[in-house]
Amino acid sequence: MLGLAGAASGGNQTTYTDATGDNEHQSNTYYASDIRSVQLTSADNGAVSVAVTLVDADGRMVSGDKLRVYVNLDRKSSTGDHGYDYELLAEGQSSGQPTFDFCSLASPVTCQAGESGFGAETYPSSGTHVVTFNVTINTSGFDFFARSEYQSGSDPTVIDDAPNSGVFTFNANNDPDHDGVYGDGDSCPTKSARGIYDSNHNGCPGLFSRIAPNRHFTAAVSASSFQLRKLWFDGGIPAGARVQIAGAGRSETLSSVKGFVRSRRFHGAFRFGSVITVRMTKPGFIGFYAQYVVTHSGLAQRRGLCIPATGNQSPVKCTGALRGK
């Protein structure tokens, strides 16, 4: 999904350059503005800024100038217009700022005037101007190219494409928890919830038909010893879930409160190779079973299974066939 948004920062920034003086000319006074670079800046919430630097004698967009940025959001050639799903369009005016339009290229093509903050033109130095579009994407990235045009009256249109052939590819880096849900489509951007653990595809664990906890620990680890200081679980744990922790000569049974449970007994010295098992269940919910191994790198999960909500409650492979509350 691509929509209108405020300017972005963070996430990822990439500058794509275009050759100097490769813009088409009809004469010394009739030419397309020369695209020198396109800089894209993204943020974790999906905001993306597209800043196109142009050079020409006017130092601004004038009547007859157009700047188009064509976006292939799904990176498919079969959708939109020859694969391009959206167009970001700036048109020069005889005075003042350009106008800015946001176009969907799916049939039929529709365009709307950009909302406040969607587009702007700035003038960093004589003969140089920067046209910026601000959008939101909820995908991992996209392909695009920019086209500068000039046309007046019945004269032919002259252009400058960046790149001169093919496309630029941008990685937005807007999935901080790496769960495959991007930008502001992820309502829990710091909590990974992938596939069957995210039944409504909003990037958050649940709806909580399945117990899907996040494991946390603090420990002091050296070449010869592992001192576990704290072990706790949070995330997709329904209140009142029964939590059984066992291993290394210890065991305990706890009940989660507000989606959180902290071990009382699992702390202190553990031998490397020790196995700790965790079993979480609640009537009507698909339960959680895991084995953690004490290693020189920390407390590593070596096995993760589900516990059926009904019938035989032995741990099984997690599949979409399991049904919970």
Structure description:
The chain has 325 residues and is mainly β. It folds into two domains: 2-171; 208-307, Immunoglobulin-like, CATH 2.60.40. It has no helices and 24 strands. It has strands at 2-4, 12-17, 25-27, 30-31, 34-42, 47-55, 65-72, 86-91, 99-104, 110-113, 119-125, 128-137, 141-150, 158-162, 168-171, 212-221, 226-236, 242-247, 250-255, 260-262, 268-270, 275-281, 287-295, 298-307. The strands form five sheets. Strands 7, 8, 9, 10, 13, 14 and 15 form a seven-stranded antiparallel sheet that branches. Strands 1, 2, 5, 6, 11 and 12 form a six-stranded antiparallel sheet that branches. A five-stranded antiparallel sheet has the order 19-18-22-23-24, with no helix packed on it. The radius of gyration is 28 Å and the shape is elongated. The model is unreliable at 3-10 (pLDDT under 50).
What percent of residues are in strands?
A: over 45%
Mean pLDDT over the full residue set: 89
- Domain count, please report it: 2
Shape: elongated
Terminal CA distance reads: 31 Å
The main pleated sheet reads as:
7 strands, antiparallel
H/E element sequence: EEEEEEEEEEEEEEEEEEEEEEEE
Number of helices: 0
Q: How does the helix and strand content classify structurally?
A: mainly beta
In the predicted model, the low-confidence regions spanning at least 5 consecutive residues are 3-10
Tags for this entry?
2 domains, seven-stranded antiparallel beta sheet, Immunoglobulin-like, mainly beta, elongated, 325 residues, six-stranded antiparallel beta sheet, 48% strand
Task: Describe the protein's topology.
Elements (H helix, E strand, L loop, with lengths): L1 E3 L7 E6 L7 E3 L2 E2 L2 E9 L4 E9 L9 E8 L13 E6 L7 E6 L5 E4 L5 E7 L2 E10 L3 E10 L7 E5 L5 E4 L40 E10 L4 E11 L5 E6 L2 E6 L4 E3 L5 E3 L4 E7 L5 E9 L2 E10 L18
Antiparallel strand pairs: 1-12, 2-5, 3-4, 5-6, 6-12, 7-8, 7-13, 8-9, 9-10, 11-12, 13-14, 13-15, 16-17, 17-20, 17-21, 18-19, 18-22, 22-23, 23-24
